[in-house]
Amino acid sequence: MINVQAAQLRAAIQDCTDRRLGETAKWLSELLLSLPADQRHASGSATAPAFHSTPARNRVSDSFQLGGLVPSASDVALMDAAVDEFKDEEDVLLVAQHYFDAREFERCAYKLRECKGPKSRFLATYASYLSAERQALNAWHALEGKRDQPPTPINQQKHALLASTNGTSDPFLLFLRGLLLYRANQRAEATAALITSVTAYPWNWAAWLQLCACFSDRKEWDEAQHLLPDHVMKRIFTIRVAVELQAPIDTDVALVDDLIGVFPDSLYLLSQKALVAYHQRDYELAERVFDKVLALDPYRMENVDVYTNILYVMDKRIKLSKLAHEFMKLDQNSPEVCYLVGNHYSLRAEHEKAVKYFRRAVQLDPSYLSAWTLLGHEYLEMKNSHAAIEAYRRAVDVNRKDFRGWYGLGQAYELLNMHQYSLHYYQRATALGPYEVRIWKAMGVCYQDLNKPREAIMCYRRALLCATPSDLYLHLKIASLYEFLEEKAHAAAYHRAAVELGTREGRPVGEWSKSALYAARFAMSFGAGGVVDEAEMRMAKEGLERIVASSGSEDAPAARDLLQAF
Amino acid sequence: MAASTPPRAGFSMPPVPRLQSPSHTRNSISSSFSLGPQSLVQSLMASGTHDSPALDPNRSLLHASPLQSSPRPQRRRQGLGSVSRHPLANDHQMRMEPDEEEEDYEWGRVDRMRLWRHDAITQHLYTTAAFWGDKVLSFTNDPNDAFWLAQSYFLANQYARAEQLLTRPFAYAQTDSPIVEPMLNGKGKGRADALAALEAPVDKPPGSPFIQLGTDAGDDNPQRLVDISISCRYLAAQCQVRQGKWPEALETLGEANPWRNTGKSGANIPNMDGGIKLDSSMCHLRGLLMLKMNRTDKAKECFLEALLLDVKNYEAFDVLVTGEMMSIDEEWEVIQSLSYAEHARDEAEFVKMMYTIRLKKYKHFDEMALARRRLVQEYSLIDNPDVLHGFADALYAQFRWADCFAITSRILALVNVHPASMPLHVACMHHMSYLQSKLFMLAHELVDKEPEAAMSWYAVGVWYLTRRKWADARKFFSKTSLMDPRFAPAWIAFAHSFALEGEHDHAITAYSTCARLFQGTHLPLMFVGMEHIRLSHFDAADDALNAAYKMCDSDPLLVNEMGVMAYNRGNYEKAVKLLERAMELASVVQSSRTQWVGTQVNLGSAYRKMGRLQDAKRMYQQVLEIDPRNGGALAYLGMVYHMSDELDQAILTYHEALSVDPTNQHVLDLLNVALESNIDSPPFARAAGAEMWNAIVKERHDARGRVYGVTPAEAALLQAEISRVGPNAGLPMTGDDSAMDLSVDSTR
């Protein structure tokens, strides 16, 4: 059973606050609050002082009972030594922290330039990083609307900052190093740095999040998994990765429930549960969970965008409207809210307004993947393929693991009749989302347009594997392609399957009558060769009879003729 | 003597032209005989070496120092207070102290005035000095006093007056006895009282320090001072140079060193008195003249001679090195083989090291580093600007601008103005964008403080260059070159401004001018070559680069350019060799890797052309590790993938290249080609696990054929198809088939 000491969490919150990792501290304190009340109070007084600036010394002994892997003792020693040695820096640190809070990053870094303590060094590096980012952003905005504006701000000082973290063993600095390495496209090195960081100090949620960005597919994650410390954070992280990779498996579902058992009031975990359900296409469950989350905390904006996606897919127009109005009142300048409103307009088919809000969302947060994708969708709806391409490209730039961007790109290029381009993007999309029927279908159409029937057939067959077996359209498509190639046996087989499907599902006769005719003709012409067995002959006949029986069909006369020929 | 200056041999003046009127002497400038220094040589040859110090080129001016030519007991001056005392005076006081007789010595009027004269000089009251010196001269008619009067004029910037004094016929023999006599023979001859006082230094050492007349002909015939003393001739030449009378000055100094080949002068003859050889100074001045007259080769010879004659002549060294007159190997050889021991004696090692650290930083890194270290450790010169400059220059050569800037800042904090470090300082500011506002400040400050210095305007030009205002930059660079035509950075920067603006033809002209002016550096030639490459003038580029390579074979940048040329010529093996060598040289320089990204890209391309795709890929990937947004490397990497049939990867990489440079038509075309061929490739190129996929399909068809509407018969057909077409061309694949299998099952 997972056992979490509130004291540890409190210490960790203090650690992150001292280093001004605001989001992490916020997240951790939410986590702390979600522990059952008795547990919080009991352990808080039992162990080390709650507001010690480093993790409690006994973190090693009683952190996680279920796993053998615990942070190494050397790391703990390091943290302890740090405190005694750098006591005299604390006043400077205090000033620097306030500068940081006032967003005077340069000043903060300058104040700390002489300090050697791990906290000061982290804060100095972090502040320099943020100031460099801010400069890059400003320089980027200065180029706005110009031809030479790069798609994303370019931080020129990254390398210098990276060099300044060389050879560090402080877990927080390691986190920064991982972040910078990731930004420098050195994914493997970044992963290593981050894994070291979270092993040494598992409570740093920011490091986990960055680590999550490092995995590009499930395989990489599986390989890295055993390197991570067995910690409650790893479990939470596991869910996160599954959601992020959009491929949660059944164990993840169980894991979420376990964790919710430990942190019964954690809204974060609840919404993770909703996300898992969403990615497993269990929209009803997801909606229910999100409803619960919003009932518990009506002001929580995280993940509300996914909630609106669910409402959109389920076509719950009124609920979405209500949500949009509520959140508009809350904060118009939050990207999530803009996204929500965009979705709202999109559902009402007011595409211009939707575009406006999605644009605003990405302006507020240029790394907002879903907003870019939906912006592309809206443009596509408006038949503005160039703008759509631009938006999808940005989506792909933000996250290459998300197939929707690639798929959108393919669609947009298809509109422009640039099939070779869309083919490539579809290929990318299928590599990322191999179970998406629509991509396979689109790819098949693409091959057809490129006059490659054989490849098209392969795509459709692949689509058939992923689709619900009742997809009549695919069968008909494949059959007609085989007809075109004059491979009659194959064509007949798919026609037969279509007829069978149609009859079983009770589809209107018109949808499959042509198939039945073809199958029957094939059976008749090849019946003697032994290729067609008795059952099939009988099936063909039955099909024809049904056509004849349903009076309105235009194919009825032909069917009658064929029946007579049998 | 005849060998070195053949044209002059016939015109040499007899030692003492008899019965010549002053006017005749003056007319002689335009008449047949020469005013050159040959007469001095002949006098020297005629007299013995030892008894004619005034004619000995191996002496310095030390012995004609004011303090010795007029005996001034220092103790009397102590009443003036130590404030007024010149450091030199202290120096000589120590020398004089042992003279017990001084106390008893009675001062005459002339002596007092000589004292005034010299004190005025040390206190920069040159007009005062000239005034009293003039009176002394009138009293004594002593050549020494004439020399000092001329010196006073010179210091007061009255060059014409000084020159006139030195070159007019000087009747030093007004009394019966020649004036030289007392000087040569000491006291005791019958003379006027005033003159008796003059020869006062009773303790005069055997080699008299006085300016002594080189001839024993002490008649009342007027003789020009320049003809009887080297120091006077040197001073006269200085005056003429200051007046811009270059031909005359050259006449005075002689076209070439008159003492060369006389056996009386040379590198191996140590100077007698520990000072700087006049001979060397004259050679240096001659060199400056040659430069003024645009005879660069000759000038270089002169400076080299000056340095050979006396290593202590730093100015000659400075002109040679700062003016980029010697190529790297030549420089090293010369500086290492100077006769330090003869001229600098105990300080030989020190002088050699000081010179060594100033040399070009493309070779001999270890020796220079050692020299720097020793200077710091053994001589504790850690805060000496010149030693620091050595460090800064070395760092700059390694492209470590930030470090270099730290050191140059330190230098400037120490000395405010350090001409050698200033260009480095400014260049660092140019390279580091965050220092550009400082550069603006610095340029303003310099122009305010020193509008006369070329350096100040150079800084202004660099500021405009940094701001990419080419025309303005050029304006200031040409101003700089006008002010100081030997200021190499301004010339190069002038040419750079053309090159950066894309005016390649103008740039070539400008660089060629640089190359002509600064023959010791390979850089202008290399730049010429680079411009020619840009203009696709391959032959001209080859010529320029080869010429540059002859001068310096260890500059990685140059070797890189040569590699590029070999590449352009299609000689890829040679290109690879050269570029690899460039990388090797770069690694010796130990600069940061970012500087050599270009060379790595080139090397990758050469590999690619040779078909060594793996090497090429490695090279490009290294580049991208350093600089992830290197558009060229991305595009080339895409090509490598394309060539090795990794279409998918190629398309991806082309996309990345286009995200850096969206309008690159070449990459767009390549991408289109790749996408076209992508159509023809099997639809599911990511073919890993093909067999496994086939197995799954088979299994599925066997087990659940019905669900898919496939009969067993058809399954057999399918199977046949699979085996016919082969696994790779056949069926849809993705990388993670097993996962897919799982999920398909679970969704059912």
From TrEMBL, chain A:
Gene3D superfamilies hit by this protein: Tetratricopeptide repeat domain
Matching entries from InterPro entries are given as: APC8, TPR-like_helical_dom_sf, TPR_rpt
Identify the stretches annotated as TPR repeats. 267-300, 335-368, 369-402, 403-436
Q: Give the source's domain of life in one word.
A: Eukaryota
Q: Which UniProt keywords apply?
A: Cell cycle, Cell division, Mitosis, Repeat, TPR repeat, Ubl conjugation pathway
Q: Which SUPFAM superfamilies match?
A: TPR-like
Q: Name one GO biological process term.
A: positive regulation of mitotic metaphase/anaphase transition
What name has this protein been given in UniProt? TPR-like protein
**Native organism:** Exidia glandulosa HHB12029
UniProtKB/TrEMBL annotation, chain B:
Give the matching InterPro entries: TPR-like_helical_dom_sf (IPR011990), TPR_rpt (IPR019734)
- What are its GO biological-process terms? anaphase-promoting complex-dependent catabolic process; cell division; positive regulation of mitotic metaphase/anaphase transition; protein ubiquitination
- Keywords, comma-separated and alphabetical: Cell cycle, Cell division, Mitosis, Repeat, TPR repeat, Ubl conjugation pathway
Compositional bias (Polar residues) = 20-50
Q: Which domain of life is it from?
A: Eukaryota
User: Which residues fall in a compositionally biased region of kind Basic and acidic residues?
Assistant: 88-97
> Where are TPR repeat segments found?
454-487, 556-589, 597-630, 631-664
- Pfam families reported for this sequence: ANAPC3, TPR_12, TPR_8
UniProt cross-references to SUPFAM superfamilies, sorted A to Z = TPR-like
Q: Name one GO cellular component term.
A: anaphase-promoting complex
Region (Disordered) residue ranges read 1-104, 728-748
> What Gene3D superfamilies does the database record attribute to this sequence?
Tetratricopeptide repeat domain (1.25.40.10)
Query: What is the official name of this protein in its record?
Result: TPR-like protein
What is the organism of origin for this protein?
Answer: Exidia glandulosa HHB12029
Task: Recall the taxonomic lineage recorded for the source organism.
Answer: Eukaryota, Fungi, Dikarya, Basidiomycota, Agaricomycotina
